Amino acid sequence: MTTIDDTSTAGTPAVVPDATPVLQARGLVKTFGRVVGLDGVDLDLYPGEVLAIIGDNGAGKSTLVKCLTGAETPDQGEILLDGNKVHFKRPQDARAAGIETVYQTLAVSPSLDIASNLFLGREVRRPGFLGTVLRLTDRAGMRESARRELRELGISTLQDVTVPVENLSGGQRQAVAVARAAAFGSKVVVLDEPTAALGVRESGQVLELVRTLRDKGVPVIIISHNMPHVFEIADRIHVQRLGRCAATITPQSHTMTEAVAIMTGAAQA
């Protein structure tokens, strides 16, 4: 591990891993007319880590994530994936590069079953004439793959992949969305407020799922307003304020109170 120059209010330097970042942002600038969304933001995401992004409303969290995932194109700056410059013009470009995003709205289809949701937009065709000409989907194959993916992620609350998503609880729906991202997000998974509107038990299940992703070596970015969850799950915390990165801290270097003070401008890192 190596230290960076940002020093906490307690005098403890923040720590970063000794590794090459999977995803990097350098000098990102994004404006909307006269409104500055991002003002020269840098970000590093390392292999097998959970990076939380926090900030007040209007701090630039959503704009930053949209630029990283292809929903917005930065006016200036560069994004690097595995050290190579990438230019995402749409979310499909980021998905094709291995960056999967789970938005707060989840984007699941309630009427479809769990397996169909996992393969939504990536349906597998049956082999031979039935798939190439008649374009029939391989339901049995997708269901077996869905069971295997859920099992590998340790999701025990979703035993029957033929159950329609509309019959699931909020936490289970979130698990389906995260499992879909994990199944296809080979490089990075981005979660937007993954525990919002969930109870204590279901939030705990989602956080455990995030830990499983990290243990599998998949780096995760979490955007959250829930400070206890951030400090429970994050390895490092990127603090956005007024379109800039105010600090990059860790749960070991700063307390929740200090993090909120940096976020609101009451204190500096």
From TrEMBL:
PROSITE patterns: ABC_TRANSPORTER_1, ABC_TRANSPORTER_2. Pfam families: ABC_tran. InterPro entries: AAA+_ATPase (IPR003593), ABC_carbohydrate_import_ATPase (IPR050107), ABC_transporter-like_ATP-bd (IPR003439), ABC_transporter-like_CS (IPR017871), P-loop_NTPase (IPR027417). It comes from the Bacteria. Keywords: ATP-binding, Nucleotide-binding. SUPFAM superfamilies: P-loop containing nucleoside triphosphate hydrolases. Residues 23-267 form the ABC transporter domain. GO terms for molecular function: ATP binding. This is Fructose transport system ATP-binding protein.
